[in-house]
Amino acid sequence: MARLGAAVQALVALPIIFVSAAGAEAQTTDKPPFWAYTYNPPDFKPPSDDGQPRHVPDSTVSYTVPQTRDRFLAPDWHPGDHPAMPTVVASGRAPDVYACGFCHRASGTGGPENADVAGLPVSYFIRQMQDYRSGKRTTALPDRIPQAWMISVAKAANDDEIKAAAEYFSAIKPKKLVDVVETETVPKPTVAGWFFVTKGDERQPIGMRIIETPADVGRFVNRDARVRFTAYVPPGSVAAGRGLAAKPEIACAGCHGEKLTGTDVVPGIAGRSPTYIFRQLYEYRHGFRAGPESKPMIDVVKPLDEADFLALAAYLATLDR
């Protein structure tokens, strides 16, 4: 899908400015920041099907546009990149359990709109699904489709399906797919499918935002798990995040491992989508993640604000996985 059609300009709320614990300006609003919780406007329509099969580099496979939009199919462009997919990942179970690999891609890489689940510890994966089921894990915008679908699937999936998905994604080595760029200005973003697209020469101040976008939009909407992303972040945010991560009262390495790549029971946070990391910090801070294992994270984020979350997310995204 080489073209996206007309996309709708992203709306950025006017911020209230204050000074954060990291010494940077932050924004606070009645709703979570739009840049981290992008959503399609009511009149958004995906490009129409031109009837042509879709292809991606280094793959002999082809899919039709309807196949790339089928929630019960995980397009498998690169079968050699992962083990054989279990049914719940490859095709799900109609009518309520969508294919895990549809949203999270066949190799679990996901995108800025959801989560990279490759390499997650089995016990952690299962626990998060249980938290979704029980309501202990929700989201700041419950009508936002990526998270609404995740919660719905978690409640509909049975224990065997959850275990199969957990073991499958755990067996895939995670890859760093994000390139972080500090900049004063960013190519003007638009929203297309719960994520940002940047095109054209017009630029605007980045402000206190992270603008994360696929390097190849066509491959991304065709659900190619090898797509890379560029995350534009404010100048100085990486250094600020590095300093925060090392503070004794935060000390990310204490739980997530020396290189922040995780342990047998704790997920890695290095090299992840900074948009995703920001959302998780925000949701811990505001009570949307309150499962049995959440207290250490909640204690860490309580004194922090959105500028701190942004800085931590920007720094973590620069690390190897």
UniProtKB/TrEMBL annotation:
Residues 46-57 have a biased composition (Basic and acidic residues). Residues 80-173, 236-320 form the Cytochrome c domain. Keywords: Electron transport, Heme, Iron, Metal-binding, Signal, Transport. Residues 1-21 form the signal peptide. The keyword Iron applies. The keyword Iron applies. PROSITE patterns: CYTC. One of its GO terms (molecular function) is heme binding. It comes from the Bacteria. Residues 40-60 are annotated as: Disordered. This is Cytochrome c domain-containing protein.
